[in-house]
Specification:
- The protein folds into 2 domains: 412 residues, no CATH class; 123 residues, no CATH class.
- Helices cover 64% and strands 3% of the residues.
- It has 23 helices and 5 strands.
- A 5-stranded mixed sheet has the order 2-1-3-5-4, covered by helices on one side.
- Helix 5 crosses helix 6, helix 14 packs across helix 16 and helix 16 runs antiparallel to helix 17.
- The protein is elongated.
Length: 584
């Protein structure tokens, strides 16, 4: 038999892995993600609280640069929006050129970034699994003449890639938040691509791409800085690149905030003291609460346990190979794919620990902060399942052959049970194990229906706010209902989570719109303009109806008049323009 005829499917796995290493594939994945994102905009859509802040700041910067509007204001006031992030504001500043299309253009980019993250995670998982299968199955002597043999050889990688597509897309809090315009999708996509570029030895490209996540999450700074120092030591020609991008990164974080009246200290203070009611930062022991209640439930236990098992088994393989080969470098080369998969899972776990430490210090511990860790653990866990397919097949085949050597009637079965059918059965078994293992601690994974329902409601709020502004006489009329000269209340008030959206539609800085005070004051006249709504579907209207009634009576007693009411359910607009107005 010729060498070609007897070639192992593992040779074809190596060829498949080359397809998944090409940088050109990133372009096709990005185009695919953009296509899905564009289609998603045909459904009612809206940004959420933080993205509206970035849209406002982008508009203000654009106006400042072109001289066509108010000066930049990125200071962190009470109800002053979210934390400053250069990455999304770069996009929103450019998109401000397109006026009212600015929010949807940012949604297009944010959703495409989220989709690209999922696709790149699947790409890396398939590549790792092909390497693991090739490594484990390299001792199998299987003819590759049949197409079925080749198909079965890649089946574990296809299974692992499909699994990671599903579990990352439906990670709790991921799809909903990214559809609402949060920037973690764009950031994580760039992070994963940078990691793979470094894996392939393209370190300058990896460092340059690493700038993108650094412009979104400060947690990436230490990793990027250490990598840059290593790159300058290894490659003297990269020193200018490293130093230049480092200065650029700091300038993009610091300069706009300084021009807007803020500071990096203010940024940290804002992030540390703006917690939602359910944040683990408010718990008695935030570190433990964040790990057990927020982070661990983000990924299926079957993946977390598979990741831990892969890390332990890879450590065993490396120690054994080091004893045989005499060096850690040679051991890593022998088990390159296993090392990469284990490193992915280990880094994901360490990222979670870092988020838990931040929460202990006082930061909010939002699940969005953990997206990088979630993706890395999903990659590692799904690759572990793909590797397990080969392990189960190998153990089963060896067991059949040993049993056949002792039981003569089984010898025919043993000869018939080649690598291909055993691997096919093993892959199906692992697929059922993956699909049927129950969850005990994982949060309920969202469904397409639940995601669409929440997005539809938030988009409805956006439409109602815009419609009510027109019902109240337009932007100028709403703003002209200012407070009297002796009254210090803000002229416009709304539910806390709608402050930034209302500010965008009113074309004013964020701090012109007031959120609800920590304890509502039911005495005296209320604000001149109030937008009342439930922030989420099924929630209570804020301000409370009793509060609005008390404020209405206050107006009547103080000024002999009351609010005019405009309804566009679920939002209600209250306006009283009878007092001496003071336009902001």
């Amino acid at each position: 038999m010729s060498t070609t005829a007897a070639a192992s499917p593992m040779r074809h796995l190596a060829q498949w892995r080359l397809y998944f290493r090409g940088g050109r594939l990133y372009l096709w994945l990005a185009l695919l993600a953009l296509s899905f994102s564009a289609v998603s905009l045909t459904y009612p859509s809206t940004p959420s609280y933080d993205p509206w802040s970035w849209l406002i700041w982008g508009r203000e910067i654009f106006h400042a640069l072109t001289g066509s509007g108010p000066s930049v204001d990125t200071a962190l006031h009470i109800a002053g929006g979210s934390s400053w992030k250069p990455l999304p504001v770069i996009f929103t500043t450019v998109f401000a050129l397109f006026g009212s299309a600015q929010p949807n253009l940012w949604l297009l980019v944010a959703r495409a970034g989220a989709g690209l993250t999922v696709l790149v995670a699947a790409k890396i998982t398939v590549r790792m699994t092909l390497g693991l299968v090739e490594q484990t199955g390299s001792q199998s002597r299987l003819s590759a003449r049949a197409l079925s043999d080749r198909a079965v050889a890649v089946a574990p990688a296809v299974f692992a890639g499909a699994a990671v597509l599903v579990v990352t897309t439906f990670t709790p809090h991921y799809a909903g938040n990214m559809m609402l315009g949060y920037s973690e999708g764009v950031m994580t996509a760039a992070f994963l691509i940078a990691v793979e570029r470094a894996w392939d030895g393209h370190h300058r490209q990896a460092f340059a791409l690493g700038l993108i996540p650094c412009l979104d999450r400060p947690e990436v700074w230490p990793l990027w800085g250490i990598y840059g120092l290593w790159l300058m030591w290894r490659d003297r020609g990269a020193r200018l690149l490293v130093l230049g991008l480092g200065v650029l990164m700091l300038a993009l974080w610091g300069v706009p905030q300084k021009l807007g009246g803020g500071s990096l200290i203010g940024l940290g203070t804002h992030a540390m003291h703006n917690h939602q009611a359910g944040s683990c930062a408010n718990a008695s022991f935030p570190f433990s609460c964040e790990l057990s209640n927020t982070l661990w439930p983000l990924v299926l236990e079957r993946l977390e346990l598979a990741t831990l098992a892969l890390i332990v088994f890879t450590a065993y393989l490396l120690i054994r190979a080091r004893r045989q080969l005499g060096s850690w470098e040679a051991a890593v080369r022998r088990h390159a794919a296993a090392t990469a998969a284990a490193a992915s899972g280990l880094f994901g776990m360490l990222w979670w620990l870092g988020i838990a430490v931040e929460t202990q210090i006082g930061f909010a511990g939002n699940p969005r902060y953990a997206v990088i860790g979630v993706m890395l653990i999903c990659i590692s866990g799904c690759a572990a399942y793909g590797w397990a397919c080969v392990g189960v097949a190998t153990i089963t085949l060896r067991g059949l052959r040993r049993l056949a050597a002792r039981v003569r009637p089984l010898q025919g079965v043993s000869r018939a049970a080649g690598w291909t059918p055993v691997l096919a059965v093993a892959t199906l078994v692992m697929l059922f194990v993956f699909a049927l293992v129950p969850n005990r601690f994982t949060n309920q994974m969202p469904t397409v229906s639940s995601i669409r329902s929440e997005l539809s409601y938030q988009a409805q709020l956006r439409e109602r706010f815009a419609a009510l502004i027109q019902s109240g006489g337009g932007v100028d009329r709403v703003l002209s209902c200012g407070t009297s000269g002796a009254e210090s209340r803000p002229n416009v008030l709304t539910n806390n989570l709608q402050v930034t959206m209302l500010a965008w539609y009113l074309k004013v800085p964020i701090y012109y719109v007031s959120a609800l005070p920590p304890r509502e004051d039911e005495t005296g006249p209320g604000p001149n303009v109030v937008f009342q709504d439930p922030a989420t579907q099924g929630a209570i209207d804020y301000p409370l109806t009793s509060q609005m009634h008390a404020w209405n009576l206050g107006w009547m007693h103080a000024n002999g008049t009351q609010y005019r009411i405009f309804n566009a359910p679920p939002v209600t607009l209250y306006m009283n323009c009878s007092v001496a107005n003071k336009k902001p």
